[in-house]
Amino acid sequence: MTDSTPDSGAERFPRVVHGPNRFSRLSIWLRRAVLLVAVLAVLTLLLPVAAAEKLGLVLVCLLIALPLARVLWFVQRWVRRGDLRFAAIAAGVLLVVGVGALLA
Amino acid sequence: MPSILILGLLGTFCAFVGAIGGIGGATLLVPVLLICNVEPLLAAPLGMVAVAAGSLAAASRQLDDGVVHHRLGLSVELFASMGTVLGALLSTSISEQWLARILGTAALAGAIAAIARKGLRNQPVGIFDDESAGEWPGTLGGTYTLNDAVVPYQAKHVGYGLGISVFTGVVSGLAGVGGGFMKTPTMSEVMKVPVKVAAATSTFVSGITASTALLIYGIQGRIEVRPAAAVIAGALLGGFSGARLQSRLNASTVRKVTGLLLLVVAVVVIGGSW
A–B: how many Cβ contacts below 8 A? Predict the structure, then answer.
């Protein structure tokens, strides 16, 4: 990737007048996710050890999955909007994470 | 390992101070855990848990404010993740002594970044009244809100920024810190992105870095779920309250105090590793 100039890509993707809440749906889901993670964390601390271990596993898996789900959300959004270069970059991030897991 | 209550309190305190000081929670938490005699191999996953929780807690507010540049963040993260994978895989084959030194050095870098950081790095070059703040499709540019005006910006020196990101990723994977204290200055100083956007974008990508490292730590069997849950609960609480209080305090002063605290921690951790 090379240095970008102020107008790079502007002719292909004209500047958009954004609505004030263009990520509102994602924002709502993230708020719900925070609440879920908080509840799971408290339950993991309060429940007996055996149940807490299982719930804690779900909690950690959720904490790992949420940022990746957010990236996946952007991949599909940018593919739908024709922003393929950045969709490929986002997909590349997921690929690196997957390769890392395989190597581990 | 400290008790669950102590871990929860540490998580709350470090996330609180980290949110106010803008350096992230793990930069402080991991060295403090080392001082509490937690092994580096277990402290690093707890640090990453705090990073992931902090990133999640901040996400919706930052999305609403339009300050996260996802395209820039994911471009940076593509290279940082490669470094994180490498660092996390290497972390089990490095002696605890060296791991402690790396963590101490990371704390030292965090201290320097916190003390040296100034308010507004990039002066606005123009004002657009016809749009709300956000990133521009297909580019590494966008607008952000400054003093009630919508100001444009464009990332520069992208190649250098991405190269440095690989290094920050390696440090993150080795040390169990999100690397926000390195990513924010990289985007702000090297790529000339406004600090407000750089900090928010850094918080977003630190969550992905944490996710990558946690996946590897989990496969390596290094995550203990109850201590992790205590840190998560504490980090969410501390992150929220710190972010609320941030606007009422003098951020510069708090950052400097945090930096001095980190400096002490770094000296203790590095000194203890010899």
Answer: 203
B215–A100 C-beta distance less than 8 A: yes
User: B141 in contact with A at a CB cutoff of 8 Å?
Assistant: yes
Contact yes or no for A71/B53 (Cβ under 8 A): no
- Look at B208 and A93 and tell me if their CB atoms are within 8 Å: yes
Nearest CA in chain A to B158: A3
Rounded to whole angstroms, the Cα distance separating B162 from B144 reads 22
Give the distance from residue A22's alpha carbon to the nearest chain B alpha carbon, in angstroms.
Answer: 8
The pTM for the full model equals 0.80
Task: Note down pLDDT in tens along chain B; length 274 residues.
Answer: 678 888 899 988 888 877 766 666 677 788 888 888 888 788 888 988 988 898 888 888 778 878 889 999 999 999 988 888 888 888 778 777 787 787 778 778 777 877 776 655 555 555 555 556 778 888 888 888 776 777 888 899 999 999 988 888 888 777 777 777 778 778 887 888 887 788 888 888 888 888 888 988 888 888 889 999 999 999 988 877 876 776 566 656 766 776 777 787 778 778 777 7
CB–CB of B166/B87 below 8 Å?
Answer: no
Stated as kind and residue range, the H or E segment containing B152 is: strand B149-154
Q: Which residue of A has its CA nearest to B56?
A: A34
Burial of B164 (0-12, 13-18, 19+ CB in 10 A): buried
Tell me the three state secondary structure of residue B151. Answer: strand
Within 8 A of B49 by CB-CB distance, chain A residues are 60, 63
Region for residue B257 given its phi and psi (left: phi exceeds 0; alpha: psi -120 to 50; beta: otherwise): alpha
Residues B225, A60: C-beta atoms closer than 8 Å: yes
Distance CA A40, CA A56 (A): 7
**Residues in chain B closer than 8 A to A51 (CB atoms):** none
Q: Do B212 and A59 touch (CB under 8 A)?
A: no
